[in-house]
Specification:
The chain is mainly β. Helix content is 8%, strand content 43%. Strands 1, 3, 4, 7, 10 and 12 form a six-stranded antiparallel β-sheet that branches. Strands 2, 5, 6, 8, 9 and 11 form a six-stranded antiparallel β-sheet that branches. A four-stranded antiparallel β-sheet has the order 16-15-18-19, with no helix packed on it. The longest helix is centred in the first third of the chain and has 12 residues, at 2-13.
Length: 271
């Protein structure tokens, strides 16, 4: 009840941020705009701000491992943005570093988006990226993910989960959320020739792809870890229908592979 009351108060009082939205957690105001939630059954650590350290950069956000936990303790911590106007398609870029002496599994570091509530217990969060396996460890890298739906008010959540006392410790900084416009998609360095369309999204039975470039050599279906689930040769077709009724609910990637290294990718959801 206390958690719900706090989250509703935050939702009603926080000012909706407009795109582009940028934060580097350098000021008290930037830090205070984000909220932490705990949904696991154990906690010895949480999301925190770090101004120095061997594994982190100044003014970043990090999560330490579950110090002293038993092998069955589950820790799940969420770090949630202020409300953001996502009424147009957007992308999120952030600076991330994974560290630790064990493999990420059973740990995970995921990015999710909600369109109705910042509270993980009540929000309709959908996964847009699993950053648990970014390599190499102990090295800062940029990464960019699409937010493949629109909503007048949305919340970005970074979720850390671990079972036991594994040593996985992610850090992130310099978040930028900006419109995903045609100019950025078709930039000379992107490898895109034009942006294809997929619909409906989310879907449950059939997925339709249109405006596929004639130079596309293959259409790949992947999970968010990059594992290839299926591949189709379009044979110069510009429209394709895919049956996805055997996929488990969740987030997946459609990738168009063209000549050389040119490729386009879109995330879609199965419900």
């Amino acid at each position: 009840m206390i958690l719900l009351t706090l989250s509703l108060s935050f939702c009603l009082s926080a000012q909706v941020q407009q795109l582009p939205f940028e934060t580097s957690f350098d000021t008290p105001q930037e830090k205070a705009a984000w909220q932490s939630y705990h949904t696991g059954n154990s906690t010895t650590t949480s999301w925190n701000f770090h101004d120095f350290g061997a594994f982190t950069a100044p003014s970043c956000v990090f999560h330490d491992y579950n110090v002293g936990a038993s092998g069955t303790d589950t820790l799940i911590d969420w770090f949630v943005s202020p409300p953001i106007n996502l009424s147009q398609l957007a992308k999120i870029t952030l600076f991330i570093q994974n560290a630790g002496f064990s493999q990420p599994f059973p740990d995970s570091f995921e990015i999710l988006v909600s369109s109705d509530s910042p509270d993980p217990e009540t929000g309709n969060y959908v996964l847009i990226g699993n950053l648990s396996y970014m390599q190499p460890l102990n090295q800062w890298r940029d990464t960019t993910l699409e937010i493949p739906f629109t909503t007048p008010i949305g919340y970005i959540a970074l979720k850390y989960k671990t079972i036991g006392a594994s040593w996985f410790t992610p850090s992130f900084d310099d978040i930028l959320i900006e419109p995903l416009d045609n100019q950025s998609i078709n930039s000379p360095n992107s490898g895109y020739t034009n942006q294809f369309t997929l619909y409906p999204n989310p879907c449950s039975e059939e997925l339709y792809l249109s405006q596929i470039p004639v130079s596309t050599k293959s259409v790949q279906l992947l999970d968010l870890s990059g594992r290839l689930l299926d591949e189709i040769l379009p044979n110069s077709q510009t429209n394709i229908q895919l049956s996805i009724n055997k996929l488990e609910p969740g987030s997946y990637i459609i990738r168009l592979v063209g000549q050389s290294t040119n490729q386009q990718s879109r995330i879609f959801f199965v419900n």
